[in-house]
């Protein structure tokens, strides 16, 4: 994942506009243009592979780096649970460090640390604790039609929604991940099932698919609308099964994604309040965070 434009430096644009095009503003304005390491990694008990994305940041001003120059293929990347430490191997395609999750199982309630070092004096570290899911339960889900006001005439689409119960007495953070409808052809009931995925997109959800129980501790939450990825003209015949996946996240995961969406919402607006991308890392930028999945199912007759 590229971590670029960490700051909305509108005031720098004004400074650049006032001077000669040939003036090096970094000599007149004390700006540190030294690249930093940007590290992004999310771990989960459901993972089969542990991944760490790593590259150098682009300078705020001056000449930018090419994709190849931003790569960091010679870093030492390690994950630890406090007892066991494993090293991750670099793979040029798709430019990621990885290790099998069987080498370091990710367990709920446990704290993990990430350390990254690279030539040039780079050293980045961070830690996170995997959330528990006790008390969190998906209580209901449904697929329903939604009317659309199209220029060519009225139309409708099907949307997937679900609800879940918050675990009271502790801070909880969530992200709605996916919905699926599974059905079978009544003319061929023993044939392969028809799988229809529903995607929860941040652009059509006021919560950006992210939720906190700060003001609704122990309450009932409702998801945004997941849109069908098959766009079939007719829904399948009943009965069929619905499946929903919810991520219980740590605070770092929640705050990082909130800041990314907030910055995207102000992109291109020079008068918007600058938004910093959240980081919980020391010595670099990015995030090391954890989540734990909760799944639910429902048979619709």
TrEMBL record:
UniProt-annotated stretches for the region Disordered: 211-235
InterPro entries for this protein: DUF4249
Pfam families: DUF4249
Domain of life, per lineage: Bacteria
Protein's name according to its UniProt entry: DUF4249 domain-containing protein
